[in-house]
Design goal:
Protein name: DUF1850 domain-containing protein
Order of helices and strands: HEEEEEEEEEEE
Radius of gyration: 25 Å
Strand order of the largest sheet: 6-7-5-4-3-9-10
Structural class: alpha+beta
Pfam families: DUF1850
InterPro entries: DUF1850
Largest sheet: 7 strands, antiparallel
Organism: Caldalkalibacillus uzonensis
Oligomer: single chain
Shape: globular
Strand content: over 45%
Number of strands: 11
Length: about 170
């Protein structure tokens, strides 16, 4: 059996090591528990070169509305997304004409109001939202009803990705 010599100096170092370990563990636990629940960074960037166009704090339940003019139908299109569990959830789509590229088999409720076809209760989870940006479609992005991004904020014909990153 091995025995270790005990001395006041050795006991002091052991005590200091234990205290450092406990303090470090408490600090890590505090950091994890204090990080904001349901807080994310909305990041919109160039998918090829990584250029960040927008980095904005968002929370669970925040609403994003993307709008543009459909390239074939030449009519307005709106998609409303909600921040939910670290993803985007498509909750509503509005458009004026039912033609090229319009989903016709989506789940949800469909109604016509003020010359718009409105699809609601979609609950489609979108982990990452991507598009090719165009200056010819009057693009806009609002966060909770406030403008966040306009057509000229992103270079023409660039691959764009919008995602949520957990805030720490």
């Amino acid at each position: 059996m091995l025995r270790y010599a005990s001395s006041p100096v050795m006991n002091k170092y052991v005590l200091i090591a234990v205290l450092c370990l406990v303090a470090g563990s408490l600090s890590a636990l505090t950091f994890v528990l204090a990080s904001p629940a349901g807080q994310y960074d909305l990041v919109i960037h160039n998918e090829k070169n990584g250029t960040v166009y927008v980095q904005q704090a968002v929370s669970e339940g925040d609403m994003l509305e993307l709008s543009w003019i459909h390239s074939v139908e030449k009519t307005p299109w709106h998609e409303i997304l909600q921040v939910e569990s670290g993803h985007f959830v498509l909750v509503e789509t509005r458009f004026q004409s039912f033609g090229a590229g319009v989903p016709h088999t989506k789940e949800g409720t469909v109604k016509v109001e003020d010359d718009y076809v409105i699809m609601t209760e979609l609950s489609e989870v979108i982990p990452v939202y991507r598009w090719i940006h165009s200056h010819h479609v009057q693009f806009g992005l609002e966060l909770n009803g406030e403008p966040l991004l306009q057509t000229g904020d992103i270079p023409h014909h660039q691959p764009v990705e919008m995602r949520l990153k957990k805030r720490w």
